[in-house]
Design goal:
The chain is of the alpha+beta class and 844 residues long. Helix content is 41%, strand content 21%. Helix 1 (212-229) crosses helix 2, helix 5 (366-383) crosses helix 6 and helix 9 packs antiparallel against helix 10. The structure holds beta-alanine (BAL) and zinc ion.
Length: 844
């Protein structure tokens, strides 16, 4: 496959002045007519008239009204055109019903919908399908479907047709069309300048009752973007549509956001607290793209982090404001370490701004999104809140309506602050997670912290230069009082020392507060000091971090030395659990152990070969010991944290339910599932029902409830995804693969729905000891299903290949088993470009 390089960027040789599209919808043969005004750019470096197009049947083409016969090439067409403005017209036929890749125009449950990012528009018509080509769009949709939607504002409609006009120039990846038998949940929002905006969430009949929460989240997002960033909405209408078959979570098409139904539909009976929180965040994320992504877009796909990193950063700020800032930060770091650190430390590592790709769909990664957001967080910390606000305002003022680069983004910060950000820019160009080694010295009231940074080699980048690292540090005195409030140390050298004067005694440092940089901190310390920080640190993130480190060390000692669970850590946990002054959500986070995959990574980093079964056994032993130590207090803790009354997904109630669920899982280890069975019976919301079922299935006591759950919810696709995933997540390591294999034969399993595929295969890959069971059955089953899915949906297949990215951590036998499966996938005839690229990178 062809490789595309950032350094090869050249602008398109033509302006697109306007686009008019007419769709005549028919499931197997939709006709798309385009009428596009082009104007050659004087002196263009690339004067060739090339339009992208894939899987299109060209019916006719004309230039200035005269029929032409373009030359069809791989991936598009070329045509001789005048050297002055001209009108291009074409008619193509496409097959939405046969489109199982879910890119371009496709059908989901009888409804037409589109997904054009990154390069799906070329499956709709011939067009310069690149983000730096921006134009206004007029769209006419003809068809029997009662609801027909596109971007922008509605302009006219009649029996069997509707017309839309989007006045804001946009790239084709933001094009959207939806048509089907849909019902809406309407509302409205008055913007800060007093403009009334019509809001709708469109769903399939029957789902109307699951829109209210999403609508509230949308209105909160619109208000927040006005208050926090001064950004106002810019059309008369904002539509959201829920679609069952969708590769991503959601898509920010201008004025017509399309959502995976799992990321917008919510009700207490069918959605967990985690679902509610995620829905609120994704609605915000897509809405915030209206300014960071749509009004200001990316020049090319190498700049993807320009819109995604910034928008993730903005949605995290929103969630922190709506809920608990520390809890959000801790959750984000857990997620970053679980998904981005393994990517950065393995064969799929790539810079936040990659410099090459074969298939851009493979770069919608945790590195682009989450590390991209971390980089913005660091920038904000370095320049301060006020200068951050100035720089971002300058970004909006200077670049509105443009397709931009990371250079443009950094320049507004340089101009607004007078800083030189050339070294900071390495965060965008160098892959890999820096390791930050810390040593300390204390003499005569002066405390010195010395840091050394180094980043391991990553594919194509053997050597790294030092980066700018903002290290937020506070100091605690021996009695636990803070003797130095948070200070941001700006590290720029490979090795650098910082001193703190006037201290009465050697302090205990709290380093990397709020996780001020996405690095791996390496510091020789003791469990006593960790317990001290867990008890006294004023920074909630580092308090959690101390508990997390205690948990990790305890697990590592159990795995490597067969040690008993660490008594001091068990004590600290017990104290915290009973401490009602602490936020329940925070207590739940401290109580949740590091993931087994995380322990495997730690062992690997320390030069050991992780044994997944031993890691699993250590987790079980630890939980059992904790439950036994807490035996006397668990019933009271359970009662105290039980939330009763009408369900509300607010942060406080959700945090309490989270803690309650963790206590129930400990209690289940002692009471054989009696309390869980009662909770299952009494539950009037999915959070409590699902928590109870999880406990029961893990205790192998939940067959009846699992069956009842299935009967109750078999008509609800989203709840069924939970049921599928839970069967695997709760299985023993030796049976996880066979449970998953049986589920792939279940009548409700289908390769055609990405959510269902991810529910089963994602749960298998997420069951660390099950997926990595020595039999290799997990590897085999995943490979078989990836090969099958690739024929239908390359994008979802390729992303799921990442399950194999950590394969070099494991022993030679497991590596050989995985290699066999990766080679089997790679050797499959007709394998997609997406999957080929992923498997080749993982194998390299
Ligand atoms: N742009 C793809 C989906 C999202 O990040 O919002
Ligand atoms: Zn996004």
């Amino acid at each position: 496959p062809e490789t595309f390089y950032l350094k090869d960027y050249t602008p398109f040789g033509f302006e697109v002045q306007s686009v008019e599209l007419t769709f005549r919808l028919a499931p197997g043969a939709t006709r798309v007519q385009s009428r596009i005004h082009f104007a050659p750019k004087p002196g263009a470096a690339n004067p060739e008239f090339f339009l992208h197009g894939e899987q299109l049947s060209l019916i006719s083409a004309a230039v200035d009204g005269a029929p032409v016969t373009p030359t069809l090439t791989e991936g598009g067409l070329t045509c001789n055109v005048p050297d002055q403005p001209f009108v291009w017209e074409a008619e193509v036929e496409i097959d939405p019903q046969g489109n199982t890749a879910l890119e371009g125009l496709y059908m989901s449950n009888g409804m037409y919908c589109t997904q054009c990012e990154a390069e799906g528009f070329r499956k709709i018509t011939y067009y310069p399908d690149r983000p730096d080509v921006m134009s206004t769009f007029k769209v006419r949709i003809e068809g029997d479907e009662p609801v027909k939607l596109s971007n922008g504002n509605p302009t006219a409609s009649g029996a069997g047709w509707a017309e839309w006009h989007d006045p804001w120039p946009k790239p084709a990846y933001l094009f959207a069309l939806v048509a089907g038998d849909l019902v809406n949940h309407p509302d409205s929002f008055t913007t800060m300048s007093g403009k009334e905006v019509e809001l709708n969430i469109w769903v399939r009949p029957g789902d109307e009752g699951k829109c209210a929460f999403g609508m509230e989240a949308l209105k909160k997002s619109m208000k927040w973007d006005e208050d926090a960033y001064g950004r106002e909405y810019d059309l008369d209408i904002f539509n959201i549509v829920a679609v069952d078959d969708f590769n991503m979570g959601a898509m920010e098409n201008k004025g017509l956001n399309i959502f995976n139904s799992s990321c917008v539909l919510a009700s207490p009976e069918t959605s967990t607290d985690a679902n509610f929180e995620r829905i609120e965040a994704i609605i915000a994320h897509e809405y915030f793209h209206n300014w960071t992504g749509n009004r200001i877009t990316c020049r090319d796909w190498f700049q993807l982090c320009l819109k995604e990193g910034l928008t993730v950063f903005r949605d995290a700020q929103f969630t922190a404001d709506m809920r608990s800032a520390p809890v959000k930060r801790i959750s984000d770091v857990i997620d970053l370490r679980a998904r981005q650190f393994p990517e950065d430390g393995g064969p799929l590592a790539h810079p936040v701004r990659p410099e090459q790709f074969q298939e851009i769909n493979n770069f919608y990664t945790a590195t682009i999104y989450e590390k991209g957001a971390e980089v913005i967080g660091m920038l904000k910390r370095l320049v301060g809140d006020e200068d951050y606000a100035k720089a971002v305002t300058l970004y909006f003022d200077r670049h509105d309506g443009q397709a931009c680069t990371i250079e443009d983004w950094l320049k507004v910060f340089e101009d607004a602050t007078g800083r030189d950000l050339s070294q900071f820019k390495r965060w965008y160009s160098q892959a890999g997670t820096p390791h930050l080694k810390v040593s300390e010295d204390y003499a005569d009231g002066t405390y010195t912290l010395t840091f050394e940074q180094s980043t391991p080699p990553t594919p194509g980048q053997p050597d790294k230069d030092p980066r700018v690292i903002p290290i937020a540090v506070g100091l605690l005195g021996p009695n636990g009082d803070e003797v130095c409030a948070t200070r941001v140390l700006e590290m720029t050298e490979a090795k650098q020392s910082f001193t703190f004067d006037g201290l009465a005694a050697k302090p205990v440092p709290s380093i990397l507060r709020e996780f001020s940089a996405p690095v791996i901190l390496e510091r020789e310390t003791s469990n006593a000091e960790r317990a001290f920080l867990l008890a006294h640190d004023t920074d909630p993130f580092n308090r959690w971090e101390a508990g997390n480190a205690l948990a990790r060390e305890a697990r590592v000692a159990m795995v490597l030395e067969g040690a008993a669970p660490d008594a001091d850590y068990l004590d600290a946990l017990q104290k915290l659990l009973r401490d009602d002054s602490q936020d329940p959500a925070f207590r739940a986070l401290v109580l949740s152990p590091p993931s087994q995959s995380d322990i495997a990574q730690t062992l690997f980093e320390r030069g050991h070969v992780p044994d997944p079964q031993k890691i699993f056994d250590a987790a079980e032993t630890f939980a059992q010991t904790l439950a036994q130590q807490l035996a006397d207090s668990l019933p009271r803790l359970y009662a105290d944290t039980t939330v009763s009354g009408a369900y509300s997904p607010d942060a406080i109630s959700s945090g309490k339910r989270d803690l309650n669920g963790r206590i129930l899982s400990l209690l289940t280890r002692l009471d054989g599932g009696q309390q869980a069975a009662r909770q299952y019976e009494d539950a009037d919301n999915m959070t409590q029902q699902y928590a109870a079922l999880t406990c029961l299935l893990k205790a192998e006591k939940g067959d009846a409830q699992s069956q009842a759950f299935f009967e109750q919810w078999k008509g609800d696709r989203l709840v069924m995804d939970k049921w599928f995933a839970l069967q695997i997540a709760s299985a023993a390591p030796e049976t996880a693969a066979s449970v998953a294999r049986d589920l792939t034969q279940h009548e409700l399993f289908t390769l055609k729905n990405p959510n269902r595929f991810r529910a089963v295969m994602g749960a298998l890959a997420g069951h660390h000891a099950g997926f990595h069971h020595a039999s290799g059955a997990g590897y085999r089953l995943l490979a078989e299903n990836l090969i099958a899915l690739d024929k239908l949906n390359p994008q979802t297949t390729a992303r799921m290949c990442a399950a194999f990215q950590t394969w070099k951590r494991y022993d030679a036998d497991r590596q050989a088993l995985i290699r066999t499966e990766l080679e089997r996938i790679a050797g499959t005839e007709g394998l997609s470009r997406d999957t080929t690229e992923m498997v080749t990178r993982i194998l390299d």
